[in-house]
Amino acid sequence: MPLSGKRILLGVTGGIAAYKTAHLIRLLIKKGAEVKVIMTTSALSFISPLTLATLSKGPVFHDFFNKNTGEWTNHVELGNWADLMVIAPLSANTLAKMASGQSDNLLLCTYLSCTCPVLVAPAMDLDMYRHPAVSQNLAALRQYGHVVMEAATGELASGLSGQGRMPEPEDILSAVFSFFLPSSSSLKGKKIMITAGPTRESLDPVRYISNHSSGKMGISLAEKAAERGAIVTLILGPTSLAPTHPSIQTIPVSTAIEMFTEAKKSHPQSDIAIFTAAVSDYRPENPSPEKIKKKDGKLNLTLVKNPDIARNLGQEKKTVQVHVGFALETDEGFGSAEEKLKTKNFDFIVLNSLLDPEAGFQKDTNQVTFIDKKGKSQKSPVLRKEELASIILDKIESFFQTTES
User: Fold this and answer.
1) What fold characterizes domain 191-404?
2) Domain 7-180 classified CATH 3.40.50.1950?
3) I need a labelling partner for 195 at 20 to 30 A (CA). Which of 41, 174, 231, 268 fits?
C-alpha cells in the first residue's frame, strides 16, 4: 500500500468542514497509514472525538491532561512521532496563531514541536479567505516551507458561493501521496518561478488590450515541475484554467505591471525562472475612468511601453540561477529568438512559430525549436504541451546535474 508504515498526525480545527475529516481518516487508513488525531476545543462542537477515535483506531487528543486517567499528553512526543502533519480543516483563527508562533492549545504546541513536513487545508467563508490578513498568514506558512492547499470553490456554509471550501478528502490524500513518492529528480526542493497566461491593459472600465494566450504551457510546466518535487510559484495572468497540484502556489495577476511586481518578489529566492507569459508590450498611457463613447471618425490611443520582465530580471540573474524564455513569432523567428536569448540572459529559449499549424495559443499541442547560448538548435516533433513540459524540465535538470557532478 502506498502509505504503508507512514505516520500521519491529523490536526482538526473548528469549522463545519470538520465532518470531512472522518472520510479523510478512512482514506488514509485504507492506504496503510497510521493516523493520530489532535482536535482543538472548538472542533469538538462540530464532530465527535469518539467518531474520529473509532476510525483512527486510537485515542483522540485535545487537551494536555486526560481528566479520566490523569495522564499528561506529551506534545513533543507527538510531534516527533509523525512523518507528516496535516491540518484539515485549517480555520482562520488557528492559521493566525500558526503564522505568529502562538501556542495556547495542544494542537499549536504540537505543531511548533514538529520537525516533519506540514500540509494544511484551509476552510473558511469567502470574505474571510480573501481578507488581506488571511492571505498574509497563508504566505507566512509557505515561507516556513509548509504546503498550503488552495481552498476549493463552491457552496459555503454561509449560503454564499465562492472560494473557501476545504479541499475534498481525495484531493488531500493526493497531496499526502506527493510527500512520500520517491524522486531522484534534480529539481526536488528547487524553487521555480513561472510566469504564464496573458496580461490585460485597460482602455476603460469595460475594454482592455490583451492576447489569445490560454496559459496552458505555463500551467503544464508548473504541474510537471511540482510532480518532480519542485516548489513552484506560478504567476498567472487572466485565464479560465488553473493548476490542480497542491504544491503549486498560484499568484493571480492582471496587468504587466502586476506580473512584474510579483516576479520581482519571487525571483531572488528562485533557482529557476521560466518566462512563458504573453505579456503586453504596451499599455494605454491614460486609461479612461469612464466607458469611451463611440464617435464619428478615428479614435487615437497613446500607448506607453511596459517593463520587459524577462530582460529586467535577466540583468539581476545570479550565476547559479537558470532562466528559460519563450518566443512566439509569426515567421520562422530564429533571428528574433537568438536576439532575445542574448539580451534577456536566457540559458535557452523555446521558439514557437505560428507558421506551425499545431503550435500557438489555445492549442493542446505545440511544436518548438530549442536554441541555447552556443547557437545550437533542435526542433521538437508535434507534442502535447504536457509532454513538451517534461522535455523542457529535462533540459533544465541537465544544468543542475552538470553543476552537481
Assistant:
1) Rossmann fold (3.40.50)
2) yes
3) 174
Q: Which residues pair with 63 in a beta bridge?
A: none
- Cβ–Cβ < 8 Å for 211, 69: no
| C-alpha cell recorded at residue 321 | 540561477
Half-sphere exposure of 104 (CA within 13 A, CB side): 8
Residue closest to 2 by CA, chosen among 28, 31, 30: 31
Start-end ranges of CATH 3.40.50.10300 in the chain? 191-404
pTM value is 0.63
Q: Kindly provide the residue ranges of all beta strands, DSSP E only, lying in 221-340, ordered along the sequence.
A: 231-236, 248-252, 272-275, 282-284, 303-305, 322-329
74 is annotated as an active-site residue: no
Mean pLDDT in order along the chain per 10 residues (405 residues): 87 95 95 94 95 94 75 83 95 96 93 93 93 95 91 86 91 84 74 96 94 93 88 95 84 97 96 96 94 87 95 95 88 77 94 68 78 86 88 90 55
Helix (H) or strand (E) holding 209: strand 208-209
Of 137, 251, 132, 240, nearest to 193 by C-alpha is 251
Annotated binding-site residue numbers: 281, 291, 326, 340, 344
Integer CA distances (angstroms), 398 to 119, 202, 224, 376, 394, in order = 30, 41, 16, 15, 6
- Residue ranges, CATH 3.40.50.1950, the chain: 7-180
DSSP state of 331: S
Contact assessment for residue 154 and residue 126, using Cβ atoms and an 8 Å cutoff: no
Contacts by 94-103 with C-beta closer than 8 Å and gap 24+?
94/11, 94/13, 94/40, 95/120, 95/122, 95/134, 95/137, 95/138, 95/141, 96/133, 96/137, 98/137, 98/141, 99/136, 99/137, 99/140, 99/141
What pLDDT score does 247 carry?
A: 73
Cα 10–chain centre separation: 22
Q: Which residues are annotated as a binding site for CTP?
A: 281, 291, 326, 340, 344
Q: Which one of 68, 74, 137, 211 is the catalytic residue?
A: 211
